[in-house]
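Q: Can I see a sequence and its folded structure?
A: Here is a first one.
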Amino acid sequence: MRKYLIYLTIPAMVACGSKEPKQSTIAGKFSNATDNTILIVSPNDVDTVNLADDGSFSYKLSLAEPAQIKVKYGRMSNILFLQPGDSSYIELDLNNANQVSFTGSNSDINTNIKSRTNNLYNIMRGWRDLFALDVKDFEAKIDSIKNALMAQSDSLKAKSNELAEMEGNRIRYFLLNIRTQYPQYSAYLQGKSFNPDSADYSFLDKVDMNNGEHLSYDDYASLLETYAELRLQKMKDFATLDSMPAEQRLPVLFNMVDSIFTNSKVRDYIKKHFLVDEIQFGEFWKLTNVCNKYVEACSTPLYKKEVQNIMNEKMKIAPGKDAPTFSYKDINGKEYSLADFKGNLVYIDFWATWCGPCRGELPHLDKLEKEYKGKKIVFVKMSLDDDMNAWRKMVTEKKLGGVQLHADGAWSSDAAKNYQIKGIPTFVLIDANGKIVSPSAPRPSSEEIRPLLDQELAKI
């Protein structure tokens, strides 16, 4: 089971209540945008909003209580504190995304939130020094950081009690997530193997793991994921799950989740977490029945919508579908398109120079390429590096073979979006007719790749 621990997240929270809702407005401008959409994430919904040609947008929503709303562009996220009837404006130049300006309602508060968010990011930028501390010093450091940040959030009570509570919770969950990372990264920095059974996660017992309302905090949701996996690993039949195909494993896993959690929204979320992970990184085309049953049983409309949307989108690259076209230049400036390789199998490696697992596959990929030299198969290495110079340097110094291409726009490139790349390395296999064989093909280091290539070559 996969666990992608990314804790630099920005949560949102809304207070409960039954007041008459009022219309609020979020508007702004994203200069130099390469994508034409943003996401507006409110406590109970996620909407896609189109940007105008000049990067401007305007969005209206109904609020009954104060809320923190996330405005997301790609992997960037900014929080806006919005009260019923407010109109807030956000402007940033994506060529210098650290410079964000807020005007309109609560502009001073939103600027303050952005500053605090940057402070949270800075904590994790020094992760090596932090996780290198012994347990006692680490806990003291976290307590010191917490006290300083909580004092800042308490000072917001003069402006809004709701805001102070939201920011306090946001800080608390962020730091709790850092504590969950300590055992694993401390072991890594000491060159030791990590054993979760011997790690101390007792502090999680003091956290309410059945608070459906707090799922609007990204870091609370991440805590739930960690807690669920720790609990599941201790259950009697957990060890047998990895040997099952996903379409059999997930229903068993869902029953285990029901035995751990009591809140229906929390149950829905944890099940969605495991299901979406399999859809994004596994053989999603085999999970139609599991998805349908999840949607039927799920009592949280937002999660139903998310699973349906993700599955519908992934089916666009299911085996047998036309492979998305692409056209990019190699290191010498020669342009290649997918059509150039028609009549051959195409094995695409989506990678980047900074990616450790990607680099780990390179020797295996080189060996595989040499074994299949002269056969009807093309090995395409599609770099998602932002830094083209780093890509050029590695290709040259390592004398990397195959067709070396750089996807313009990196993670925002058409190739990354059309092939729905969520993590790297990702390998894609395309047949001689331009149809997808596997959108998540085995890695070069796996035992499964050669039988698959031989099977497909026999069809040509």
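Q: Show me another, different protein.
A: A second, unrelated one:
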Amino acid sequence: ALVVTAGWWNLPTTLQWNVFWDLGRQQIRRHRPTPYRGDITLIRAAENPDHPDTWARMVTGRMRTVTVAADHHAMMRAPHVTATAAAVSAALYLTDNEGTPS
């Protein structure tokens, strides 16, 4: 019952984390991805065990891959977040100036 009302009321921190964890698990089980019709830039952590081609199956266009020398969580924290931000900026620049990220 708490998952249905997730985020509506403030709950004790541990309970709130558990509710959102359960909500996320439900969404993952229900989600059925479909291919994205376009080009993408995949910004991935170097320590990601998944091969980038895993994502290529979900794209009908071209895929440009940029690897950040970090793990999944560290790429969003200093000092690695600088490289992550640069990769995002470059992808946006390419999209704005070429109409495609690759």
